[in-house]
Amino acid sequence: MADMLFPIELEGAGTCDVESLASYVYRVAYEHGIFVGELLRHINKQTSALTHLDTEAQPVPAFLKPAEMVRNNRSSAAIQGALEKLTGLELSQSRLLFMTSDIGRSPNEVAPGFRWCPECMSEWQALGQQPFFKLIWHLSAITHCPSHRTELISKCAFCSCKQTGYIRKRAIGFCQQCGRHLGTRNPDKLAPEIARSWEMKGADVHQFFVDMAQQPFTAELEGGIWRSLRDLFDHYWGNGKELELYQAFPRDEWISLYHKQKPVSFSTARRLCYGLGIDLYTLISGSAINSTQVLSQKWLCELPAGFCERKSRQKRNHDAIQSKLRRYLDPCVRPRPMKEVAAELNVSVGYLEYRYPTAVSALVKRHQSMIVAQRQRTREKALNSALQYFTNSSYSGYPKSRKQAYLCLREETGLPKFLLKGAIGEVYSALYSS
Ligand SMILES: [Zn+2]
Ligand SMILES: [Zn+2]
After folding, report:
1. What's the 68 CA to ligand 2 centre distance in angstroms?
2. In terms of domains, do 195 and 84 share one?
3. Do 55 and 33 have their domain in common?
4. Ligand 1 centroid to 361 CA: how many Å?
5. Under 8 Å CB-to-CB from 28, ≥6 apart: which residues?
6. What is the number of the ligand closest to the CA of 144?
7. Which helix H or strand E contains 168, and what residues bound it?
8. For 120-140, what is the mean pLDDT?
9. Which ligand is nearest to the Cα of residue 357, counting in written order?
10. Measured between alpha carbons, how far is residue 277 from residues 239, 249, 296, 349 in Å?
11. DSSP states of 196-245 as a string?
């Protein structure tokens, strides 16, 4: 029997703000009271015992830099696989899986070490949430926090520690060297730079992470970008409108992309999308030709919504709202829809999403899991009552037909029709069909 690890949750799972695998590994090591190297050796030992017959299995490396842990490579896949075996969690969203052989293979697409937004860190601290390093922060293309628009930093503002050391003395939200909170701004340094251009804001990359988080499985992205580019080129060429394409993206670059099919850098992919007025997910998943923006042919003058500036908001008492919002994050408080939370705080959902993005994603996730759990319970109740109807002696006087079961149980339980009918059908066929 292998030594399992505590099932520490991957923060922000299922959202665009998902935690990176590197952050998760560092956090798990600290929570288990060991250093990162020891954790890697431990999971290697545990899983090689489990997979010793599988010759394909890649061993977990004893050392790997944070940037390599989030890239799409065999070593990071081995760490992810081993941790999944030992925790029972699904962790594939914690790596940059869209970086296939087509996109973003050049070494500087992923920033070295960790980077973080001090404002996100202080928001988590103020609201009592678990700090972590987001996967999106590892991308060099993201220079500013998409939520707060301030510049990301890669070392402690006081002692310049990069937080990448394997020795973990403090929780992840604190500087490993000087102990200050990573959300603390150094008053002796210049105020943070606020993003101005669309490129710096990275709203398009943020939207890309939103779209990826909505795919139920890690979608097959390999080759997608070539399909998109070929279809677009053929479409415009076929209609004698290739000049429009060259307005969106220089001709030489088109030709080079079209013929050479060398890997596209992530920033080239972003520029293509910007010029074409389509989003990154559409381009990379290979469905550019189906995009309405392309077909409507108005795309040259339209910017996708993600590129637009956020509107300025009216003044509010942020502190009062923050302390009220904090209460909703308490695990004992019944999860409720964001609309309801916003109404109770007397603000708009948009305001909360803008000011407290991390708190909102945590609340949305809690509410969604509550709904899933409720549905599951209702389904089980329907199955149970159907089973009782056909097998329990208290129903012995009732005709054993599906219709009678429905009429009787509908009256007794008040459960929705589709649920009851489904449950009765399931039980009936299990009991009476050969
Ligand atoms: Zn931030
Ligand atoms: Zn420090």
Report:
1. 24
2. yes
3. yes
4. 13
5. 5, 6, 8, 39, 83
6. 1
7. none
8. 93
9. 1
10. 19, 11, 11, 27
11. -SHHHHTHHHHHHHHHHHTSSS----TTHHHHHHHHHHHHHHHTT-HHHH
Rounded to the nearest angstrom, the distance between the alpha carbon of 116 and the centre of ligand 2 is 14
Higher pLDDT, 253 or 55: 253
Please report whether residue 209 resides in a domain.
no
Partners of residue 144 on adjacent β-strands: 151
Which ligand is located closest to the Cα atom of residue 159? 2
Query: Mind listing the pLDDT tens digit for each residue in 395-415?
Result: 888 888 999 999 999 988 888
Helix (H, G, I), strand (E, B) or coil at 314: coil
Q: How far is the CA of 176 from the centre of ligand 2 (A)?
A: 7
Identify the pLDDT of residue 69: 96
Q: How far apart are CA 275 and CA 110, in angstroms?
A: 23
6 alpha carbon – ligand 2 mean position (Å): 29
C-alpha of residue 104 to centroid of ligand 2, in Å: 32
Q: For residue 15, count CB atoms less than 10 angstroms from its CB and return exposed for 0-12, middle for 13-18, buried for 19 or more.
A: buried
* Ligand 1 center from residue 413 Cα (angstroms): 48
Look at residue 252 in the predicted model and tell me its pLDDT: 85
Supply the pLDDT for residue 7: 81
Q: How far is the CA of 189 from the centre of ligand 2 (A)?
A: 14
| One domain, residues 8 and 80 | yes
Distance 361 CA to ligand 2 centre (A): 29
d(C-alpha 124, C-alpha 287), whole Å: 37
Q: Tell me if 207 is assigned to some domain.
A: no
Ligand at minimal distance from the CA of 169 is 2
In this prediction, residue 41 carries a pLDDT of: 95
Q: What is the pLDDT of residues 262-320, one digit of tens each?
A: 788 888 898 888 888 888 998 998 888 877 555 444 444 444 444 444 444 455 677 88
> Nearest ligand to the C-alpha of residue 160?
2
Q: Name the domain count of the chain.
A: 4
What separation in Å is there between the alpha carbon of 144 and the centre of ligand 2? 21
Cα 164 to ligand 1 centre (Å): 20
Identify whether residues 189 and 120 lie together within a single domain.
Answer: yes
Domain that includes residue 344, residue range? 318-369
What distance in angstroms lies between residue 153's CA and the mean position of ligand 2's atoms?
Answer: 12
Query: Lowest-pLDDT range, 63-77, 154-168, 169-183, 352-366?
Result: 352-366
Distance 170 CA to ligand 2 centre (A): 11
Residue of 357 and 368 predicted with greater confidence: 368
